[in-house]
Amino acid sequence: MLKGLAITPPVLGRISIGKVVEKNGKRLPEKDDQFTITSQVQGKDGWLLHPLDDELRQGKEEKLRSIPVRLLFNEPELNFRADYTLFDRQSGRPVCVGNGETCKRVTQDGMQSLPCPSPDACPLAKGGTCRPYGRLNVLIGDDDPLGSFVFRTTGFNSIRTLAARLHYFQAISGNRLACLPLELRLRGKSTRQSYGTPIFYVDLTVRGGMDMAAALLTANELDAQRQAAGFDQIALDEAAQRGIGNGAFEDSEEDVSAIVEEFYPTEENTAPIPQTSQHRSKTSLAEKLEHQAQRHNPPLDNHSGSSHEITQA
Fold this sequence. Notes:
It contains 7 helices and 13 strands. By secondary structure, the protein is α+β, with helices and mostly antiparallel strands. The protein has a domain at about 10-80 and about 135-255. The strands form 2 sheets. Strands 3-2-1-10-9-5-6-7-8 form a 9-stranded mixed sheet, with helices on both faces. The longest helix has 18 residues, at about 210-230.
């Protein structure tokens, strides 16, 4: 095994809830209110769709907001790796990766292990350049038992929810996380900080149409079948742990430019700051009502409010 090269789960495609679009000559991230499954090939109009994207949409009139999945490993941190990450926006290369206690940082003296005070207290992270960054690998379908699709996110809600679900499912399944029939689901909420704009994040639940008891029985049966066939899940987890820990940074140089473009743009759209004076408030409200009347679109769904500007969490 090459030292310094992180060996991550094989990737067949991507899962996203947004895309990069060109506006006024600049490429900026644009969020969506549904999942999109793409290949690893980019065309002039963006990532090419994976055949599974069309397959999962068959017979559905609504948008793709749930994906049936399984996991590769029993250990939550192997399926979902999350850390604080600082990228160099010029070169696109990672500069520092930490967990709130320690970090690996590229310095003039080479790679160093240093204390990580978290972005709020780190002088290197001023300006919001260091963010939580998570990668979730899941299996879709049964064609390739080791080929995964990766979902990347910098949203607190997605990271917090996925981490909690994975640990809970591992606990209640008796460490049979890789055998559970699960489902990625897109959820939405509005917060005061988002000014009523719907925030969409990713959740992980048991497969649609099943309750927890049925999911646990299915996991037990699959685990027994795998053991009878000689499938060594413990050895697989150990191999993955060694591979991921073999390098300082997980994402390869050929991938980081697209990651920086999507999750670490140089300019981002920000929500308008509420006006304090009564006159400015009335003007702002009138402008909003006029703009809303011009668009005159119905809400996306019951929990999304009346705004159509989508934000990923």
